[in-house]
Amino acid sequence: MRRALERLDAGTYGTCENCGGLIGAERLDARPDASLCIECAAIRPR
């Protein structure tokens, strides 16, 4: 959660760290600490 607060302070909260696109509001509601949009999260190896 600390990283999410850092992104909020930096003005990058809600922006995907991979593609630079917006992270959807529904995803942020479900996972406020999400740093990837749903598309990038789906293709990222676990």
From TrEMBL:
Keywords, in A-Z order: Metal-binding, Zinc, Zinc-finger
Keyword Transcription tagged: no
Residue ranges annotated for the Zinc finger DksA/TraR C4-type domain, each copy included: 11-43
Pfam families referenced in this protein's UniProt entry, alphabetically: zf-dskA_traR (PF01258)
Cross-referenced SUPFAM superfamilies: Glucocorticoid receptor-like (DNA-binding domain) (SSF57716)
InterPro entries named among the record's database cross-references: Znf_DskA_TraR (IPR000962), Znf_DskA_TraR_CS (IPR020458)
PROSITE patterns per the UniProt record, alphabetical: ZF_DKSA_1, ZF_DKSA_2
Tagged with keyword Protein transport: no
ZnF (dksA C4-type) ranges: 16-40
Domain of life, per lineage: Bacteria
Matches recorded under PANTHER family: RNA POLYMERASE-BINDING TRANSCRIPTION FACTOR DKSA (PTHR33823:SF2), RNA POLYMERASE-BINDING TRANSCRIPTION FACTOR DKSA-RELATED (PTHR33823)
Official protein name in the record: TraR/DksA family transcriptional regulator
